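Give me the fold.
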Amino acid sequence: MGDQNQSISSKGESPRMPRSVQAVYLKPLKRKASYGIPSCDLQLRSYNIRNVEFFADFALRAAYYLHLPATGPIPLPRITERWTVPRSNFVNKKSQENFERITLRRLVQIHDGHPETVEIWLAFLRKHAYYGVGMKANVWQHESLGVGKTMDVGLENIKGTLEPRWAHFGRRKNLETSERVYEMMNDETARKTSDAPLNGL
């Protein structure tokens, strides 16, 4: 090790950085999509260009290591909002101040991704969300033919479990609670406090 340092210092060269550190200074690697079937569109929004560019780079690197073919970041049109606010009221109404807010957007697209892998990618981005950057994802899932029949069977199974609960929706009462209420109303203390007789219930 000492001989290596002496040889580097004699040549006047700095030691080589590790590959993982060098990759930070390079563009993120991307995988090519085989079929081009869309799986997810991730839209990033921020008021700061540095934040949105940094997080888009982070999202592309995460997609590469999860073996997801990603494209982007694609710049989307800016959203410009303007407000005019009076500085004072009454006679100074003409003294007004203008405010402007510009929202910058970038689009990262995932093609040919497995739904579970896309969910893992989105969960990873949510966990390591960057401050000042909002995310909005549109996810597509593709099913095989005949999925309607399986959905109908699943609906019938769900109906069987939900019907007892829907029967008492809004009331949250069953036969036991009604009997308990009747006992409480016929109690001696309840009769003494109320004027009307409860024998006819």
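The chain has a mean pLDDT of 80.
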